[in-house]
Specification:
The chain is an alpha/beta fold and 324 residues long. The protein is built from twelve helices and twelve strands. It has two domains: 135 residues, NAD(P)-binding Rossmann-like Domain (Rossmann fold, 3-Layer(aba) Sandwich); 179 residues, NAD(P)-binding Rossmann-like Domain (Rossmann fold, 3-Layer(aba) Sandwich). The protein is globular.
Length: 324
């Protein structure tokens, strides 16, 4: 089979241990992103199998209907919200989606962003390289309030570290999220307004779906302290479009650290947050570690080999399998 991997920014697929198991198959890896549906379809026109790395590219009907040879999509992770599943099923394209990421990795990056922000680490590193000495005064975290929005796999780990640093941890989210937080002996905010008003650092850990899109509004951000830090390592559209840049310009919150953007990858520094001195931005590094890639791509390879053997696994669209 011809297997095409797209959006492998770091060229990691060929370096993971599972890659050697695809001997005998033709494997093509694209490290860049193609957003135009027609050009993406041209790139994939001879593929029997496409490997999708997380949700880096949309896979709409406009692409799928121009892929006559495509038999299978091997999705890394269980979230295939970026794929037109119905269009795949109608054409008998099987979607296998299995395996999860490592919550620790995103939680670790979250704390890297928090500490880098409050201690001005990137700024001082560049000054030192330029022959200068310290010029900023950092903020300590002990005794400050950490707001965790959504107490799930990642949010719970971020909260535990905050407690270890001597921070007061305040949680907000849906009823189930707050119940989990209380069970772990963390406080829930008295109200949504109190959550945004009282936190010195807020970290967002919500999945992106119809309910959470733009759930953090400009009004929420305006309630934050002028000394507060907003951190987003989840998905950019959780915050209303344009609201964070506007809030930072207005001074509430005073700083932001983000790992995610509305349209990725961001090339040519073409994003409003990258032009602000009070924003620290990283290129979606949250889950990007070797252990995560080993887990993601090992599952992707397992799915391909199972399909090739006639016993597919982690089937997302039973209708597609039935049609095939």
């Amino acid at each position: 089979m011809k297997i095409v991997v797209i959006d492998d920014y770091s060229d990691a697929f060929r370096k993971v241990s599972a890659f050697s198991r695809l001997q005998g198959h033709e494997v093509v890896v694209h490290t860049d992103t193609e957003k135009d549906p027609a050009r993406l379809a041209e790139r994939l026109k001879d593929a029997d199998v496409v490997v999708l790395t997380q949700q880096r590219s949309r896979f709409p009907k406009a692409v799928i209907e121009h892929l006559p040879k495509l038999k299978m999509i091997s999705q890394t992770g269980r979230n295939a919200s970026h794929v037109d599943i119905d269009a795949c099923s109608q054409r008998g394209i099987v979607i296998s989606a299995g395996g999860g990421g490592r919550a620790n990795n995103t939680a670790e990056l979250t704390w890297g962003l928090i500490i880098s922000s409050v201690r001005h680490i990137p700024f001082e590193v560049e000054r030192l390289k330029g022959g200068q000495w310290q010029s900023t005064v950092g903020t300590g975290l002990a005794g400050k309030t950490l707001g965790v929005y959504a107490f799930g796999g990642i949010g719970s780990k971020v909260a535990e570290v905050g407690r270890a640093f001597g921070m007061k941890v305040l949680c907000w989210g849906r009823e189930g999220s707050l119940a989990r937080a209380k069970k772990a002996d963390f406080d829930a905010a008295a109200s949504r307004e109190a959550f945004f008003e009282s936190a010195d650092v807020i970290s967002l850990h919500l999945p992106l779906n119809a309910e959470t899109r733009a759930i953090v509004t400009g009004a929420d951000l305006a309630r934050m302290k002028p000394t507060a830090l907003m951190v987003n390592t989840s998905r950019a559209p959780i915050i209303a479009e344009g609201a964070l840049a506007a809030a930072l310009k207005a001074g509430r919150p005073g700083f932001a650290a983000v790992d995610v953007f509305e349209d990725e990858p961001v090339m040519g520094a073409d994003h409003p947050l990258l032009k602000l001195d009070n924003a620290l931005c990283t290129p979606h590094l949250g889950y990007v570690t070797w252990d995560s890639y080993e887990a993601f791509y090992n599952t992707a390879v397992e799915q391909i080999l199972a399909f090739a053997s006639g016993a597919p696994i982690n089937i997302l669209n039973a209708d597609g399998l039935a049609k095939r």
